[in-house]
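Submission sheet (multi-component)
Chains listed below:
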Amino acid sequence: MFSNILSAAIQGINAQIINVETDMSNGLPMFNIVGSPGPEVKEARDRIRAALKNNDITIPASRITVNLSPGDLRKDGTAFDLPMTIGLLTAMEYLPGGCAGNMLFLGELSLDGEIKPVRGVLPIVQTAARNGIKECIIPIDNAKEGSIVPGIKVRGARTITEVIMYLMTKDEDILPSVYTDPLSIIEKCNDIIPDFDQVKGQERAKKAAVISASGFHSFIMTGPPGAGKSMIAKRIPGILPPLSLSESLELTAIYSVAGKMPKGKALVTSRTFQSPHHSISRNALVGGGADPKPGIISLAHRSVLFLDELPEFGRDTIESLRQPLEDKTIHIARVKYSVDYPSDFLLVCAMNPCPCGYYPDRGKCRCTENEIKHYLAKISGPILDRIDLCTELKNIDIYEIRDGKGGISSAEMSEMVMKAREMQDKRFKGTSYRFNSDLKADDMEKYCELGEKEFELMEKLYKELSLSARSYHRILRVARTIADIDGKEYIDSNHLLEAASFRPTMEYFKWG
Amino acid sequence: MDINDRPYAFWLVSVPWIGQGPVPKILNAFGSPKEAFLASDEELMRKTGSKQVSELIKFRKENNIFRKYDEFMSSGMKLSFIWDEDYPERLKYIPDPPYALFYYGRLPENNKLSVAIIGARQCSPYGVKTAHELGVKLGENDVNVISGMAFGIDGISQKAAIEAGGYSCAVLGSGADICYPDSNSDLYEMLKENGGILSTYPPGTPAVSRFFPPRNRIVSGLADAIVVVEARIRSGTLITVDMALDQGKDIYAVPGRLDDELSAGCNGLIGHGAKIYLSPSIFMSDLLDDHLKDLESGFSVISDGALLKPAFNSEADKRHRKFEGKKDKEPDIEERLLEIYRELTLFPQSAEEIDIHLRENGETSPGETGICLILMELCLEGYAVQVSPGCFCKK
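Outcome: structure written.
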């Protein structure tokens, strides 16, 4: 007998519908899986055999062939266990033919017939809904994640018996369909992100954080150990505007594909903070591997990627950020596959100014010129070129900690960010730009118009600070954002000066 | 000494790695370089035997020293032996004077005042400024500036002297044809052209740490006075000072702040009786006071070092008492800029520190961001420098 069951495979952060065809015929007893199955898919036959046996179903001694179509697409993961079982049961006429029509199945089987969670549920259910599939049966642990997709009945199943019972009786009580309104989840979100009012002093660094969050400018902090660099970085997600529904869905899809969805959560509801250790490999950072998975930069999509101790990262690792920083997406190509993952992250870096960390305080710092040069040379120039803001933190003195001069809080800062974002939205309406940091050199004149006085100042800056063309534009972009925070239509001299004071350059370190 | 004997003398000093240590002993035993060269291996070893002498013997066997000498003479580098006319007079009076000097450019003239400026390699903006000022002053007044061409104080003062049209001479711890450190290559070329580069090590000798202390005695030996600009408590600079004291030279130290490690060595020297350096012009007057007789006599007699401290009510003492601290002329800028400019020092400060300082003094502060904007303006006008992303100091 023959049967055809629907399932799906992940491709990038999208999914592709797969037909699981099962044929049962006379011949030598065997169980074959064809259609480019990966190792986990091949192992499925042992899990299926054991799970069915332990639920008192015997597979007849006949020749079983399972084909996963389209056959040229490589299939990985354990999500095909459930559809193959249902296909087999239909083919052996244990289940009535057609009972699983227009339904999509996903799930891993344990040997006693329980259904275990799988990754990539959200994009698969979304694809199913787009393809007009009416029902989805998915593992109970993934049910919440699938339940946010409208226009499709999503049922979470605990065991294989439940699924069989449901297919035989079509009794809604056995597998009730679930639906949650994603908007309500986002509105209810109360993820706790530490507040900026815990950062004492450091007014300049906080201002830089606001600028960075407003115009999505990448940001580097230098300073001695313990000055609060990581503390500030950790609080940046809290001043970024809350995730919109589409952003949240996008981020959830990435998390789901990466298998990083927290158990029992339907959506990623707040901006994430990714802070990989500097020993991270290139593939872990940008994604890849034998079985393609998104890297840290995709998990930091629309959120913050924090690289602490920047010079300690491998050079190759850091260089690999160049293309995603430009394109906001990473294209990973291997012999067996080629996928795109979104990676529109806010890059925040921290580093010590020298190996001991105390430069330019020559009383404490005893690093030689060569040591400092060597240390700074570890930072890739092209990456530094893509960083818009730089600020130095100093250790604050004990009185400031005790007196608790907190300065502005996250709420106030986030208000400033929202204001600047609104200005940008208005300005870039109908263009491909979203933030000031995206501005290309050609459009600079159009969006960063300077008055005569300001132009003179800019000329002076260009000469006195011996800027390159690239850093000239960088100052303009940052000045644009500072003006937006101020609520000003035009950039004035103070905006330019402030932007110039935040300019990142290694030339600081070249002298004396 | 006969011109034809120079290749033999060249042989005594051109063997790499052994230095000029065995030369006096050999000359005592044989009378002249030629005699020593013509002596048999056994005789050389019997009379002066040491590891260095065996190297000398090996060298004369393996090389044709006449050809070596000719090659050297055509290389552009010059050689001055202790009996030569141009050999610096001052060096003859130090303990253990070098037998020969390899050099480029000119050797320092005997009848001019000569000052060694030494200090830390990793110096602060304060040291940079002081060394630069002093170098310019000496260069303008035709005083020779002697130093080691090292990174930091050494190089800065020498460069300033040359650029001010003076003469400066670098004493290297490597062969005179090796520019160390690399980063001073522009200074190296300037000195070759308008000053002097000298070394006791044969050409090609790389810079090795154990060669540096012996060269320091030549730096101090060539000078009438030593100015220490910035030095830590334990530093190579203080080794030079010890040697200078042995040679009876005057020591001047630039005072610094008590909490500044980079000035601790200088402050300590003042405590031990070194003279205080107050400003380029006061230093020039002090120097002239002490060495007027030498100058008038054309340095025909090398005097002993002057008294350590100026005597009570002497000219120098009066000068020092009149000194009211150094004040830079205030630039002609707007009042709001001037307020912040007055807060700037030669020590890097952040906007936050300036803000706190202003508030503590009960003055109105334009706030951290405001200060930062003014500092940037000052940078553009050339009155301040941004030394690191958050720190500024006076220019």
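Remark: The CA atoms of residues 113 and 331 of chain A lie 38 Å apart.
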